[in-house]
Amino acid sequence: MAKNLLIVESPAKAKTIEGYLGKDFLVKSSYGHIRDLVKTDDAIDTSNNFTQRYEVPAEKKAVVSELKKLAKAAETVWLASDEDREGEAISWHLYETLGLDDEKTKRIVFHEITKPAILRAIETPRGIDFNLVNAQQARRVLDRLVGFELSPVLWKKVKPSLSAGRVQSVAVRLIVDREREINRFTAEAAFRVVAIFHTDNPKELFKAELPKRFTDVAEAERFLTDCIPARFAINSLETKPSKRSPAAPFTTSTLQQEASRKLGFSVARTMTVAQRLYEAGRITYMRTDSVNLSDTALQGAEQEIRSAYGDKYHKRRQYRTKSAGAQEAHEAIRPTYFDQHTIGGDNAERRLYELIWKRAIASQMSEAEFEKTTAKIGVSTREEELVANGEVMRFDGFLKVYFESTDDDDEHEPNLDNDTGNALLPPLTKGQQVQLKRMSATERFSRPPARYTEASLVKKLEELGIGRPSTYAPTISTIQNRGYVVKESRDGKPREYRIVELVGGTMSSLVKTEITGAEKSKLFPTDIGVVVNDFLVEHFNGIVDFNFTARVEKEFDEIAQGMKEWTAMLHSFYGPFHQEVETTTKHADRATNERELGEEPGTGKRVSVRIGRFGPMVQIGATDDEEKPRYASLRPGQMIETITFEEALDLFKLPKKVGEFEGKEMTVAVGRFGPYIRHDNAFFSLPKGLDPLDVTTESAIEIIREKRQKDKEKIIKIFEENADARIENGRWGPFIRFGKQNVKIPKGTEVNDITYEDVVKWAAEDEKKPKKKARGKK
DNA sequence: CAGTGAGCGAGCTTCCGCTTGACTT
Questions:
Q1: Which of A191, A410, A483, A764 could form a disulfide with A441 if both were Cys (CB 3.0 to 4.6 A apart)?
Q2: C-alpha angle A380/A384/A386, rounded to 5°?
Q3: Would the pLDDT of A687 be above 90?
Q4: DSSP strand E in A105-231: where?
Q5: How far apart are CA A457 and CA A5, in angstroms?
Q6: pTM score, whole prediction
Q7: What residues pair up with A118 in beta bridges, in sequence order?
Q8: Which residues of A are designated catalytic?
Q9: Is the CB of A462 under 7 A from strand B?
Q10: Per-residue DSSP letter, A260
Q11: Which nucleotide is nearest to A155 (CA to C1')?
């Protein structure tokens, strides 16, 4: 039996460390926390100085008993959990639960997993820091009290099984607030003037823009008209060097943001892929708020940069964290070995690794150097000047490997010639005359604030100091699982914009159409999310305040430094909080976002919207009328807060009969996958953009015929290419006959998109499924 | 599968932060 037992939090870490230490050390993992508050309401005795009841959860029993056995046999137990609040508490829980002695227990910390760092730590052990432990207990108890007192208020005043908490409720609030900002927003139009000039050489083209915008067409038109006889000259020419520096290596939150933007990963996906890379020894720990790199990492990066790109590409940099709540128990996320530019593994692993490698390497590289040129072009008939910008890269530096994206990357606005305006300018001199090739004034609209993506919500939460690297992904899942928020893509609406053009001395104007407001994988609040949020804001503003966490974190820090007593802190918080819970439970009205929209034309019946038993709905008529009220569910994308009277009435126009075809009725309705036509037990999706209310008998027949034709072509194709598979139209729509097997087409699949490979896959899946027993009728 | 639309009753739901695992349906 080994003389020393060393306990860390993560098994992958344990494995690495075991390699650094000799045979005298056995390195084991606690798998995170081993003890937690009991799950019942009596976990904390609030009338007895917040005494806590802890237990070892069932799934941790095996770990604990194993550690207990090993600890008994060891001469010395080294508690090496992370150097932060939670880590200290883990050490303390281990100490208590394993029944350790003071003499044989040592607490050590290190924030990089390297041999020298660990040996140094072992030479400088300390005791458990109880101030830090108390700060963790205060954090834990406060979160439990908030969560377990607030949630029941919601069960009573809104709906059972709902939840509220210090972190999740603020996340929901951010999304609700943003949605309202967007709803309130009115776009302002202005005309942006862009011109293309050339020098005496007609091939030397460059673009210039008017810094100011015109708010109405007449002004824009006058400017262009004034330009017809005008002469244009370079009034001034300025060239300045500029530099761009690389970004810091990844933390959890920045990794999630970049992986979302560059790879399209959800935050959960990023974390599971990163976990696999970590367990395979490819990268350092992926749940971190630190941008720090260890000395060995700095050396590794330096060596790699010098050998792969040359000495002038290297620049040693230390980054400092920006987020206030950072605890920095770990390094930044980086590759374990810098000389491995790529790795094996699946596609997702390879791409995420490459992103991490590039970002870490770039962080130790030189600035990129540019030369920026600004030319101002005078217009002889006007006061205003047009501005042309050119940029030349003199040295690529870190851009050789990595380019950081921004949230706006995908939102480039359409414009006349669709380039960036940062291109190369031709050689110009001051006073030189230039020729106008063409000029345009395009109507542009101001944009509302952007809806949150998962990743941009994480960014915001981190800025506010809310949540931790280990909880960002779970929090995003929680608010979706509770139904407060949905991640959706929504179609935009067409919008017209005007363009005035000046080409070859003649003016023309035209109107174009663009799509605006289309969203891809964005977070939208649901009606229930809105009701819960408004209720919490009204009655518990202190808790869902964006600064609540920052304030209590400051107090936790004071506890950690021994400047404040942790139960005193909890007393001063809990007294008023609990009082609010009591009075709200007693006196507050049931929360609702019911709205009256008006009276139904003709009948005069009340039209209202509210959340019903099955979700948001419109009701026409009163519940106690002798004639039963009529109901209709809101469609995806519609909300109680914003639905109009007309939209609400429209919901009752479906399902609608649109005539007969082949002796069978056709009905238009809206289902879960969008609007469809039902005919003879078959379903036909409407083409995008066609309003279900606009469907006529003729257009319905046309849609059915087109779909059948497409299916038929597909059937023929598959049949021709593969004699053993073909699609047939059955009683309930198309199915695939695959040899002797009948294969089901998964829901939502367009028959036209089916490939032979799909069929093979589905057939294999169908085989695996156990045969369902025939069920008798109830 | 293409839509519904409550109301006594019993007991349940719920937090945040560490970490990885998984009886087979």
A1: A191
A2: 90
A3: no
A4: 105-107, 189-198, 205-209
A5: 41
A6: 0.86
A7: none
A8: 285
A9: no
A10: I
A11: B13
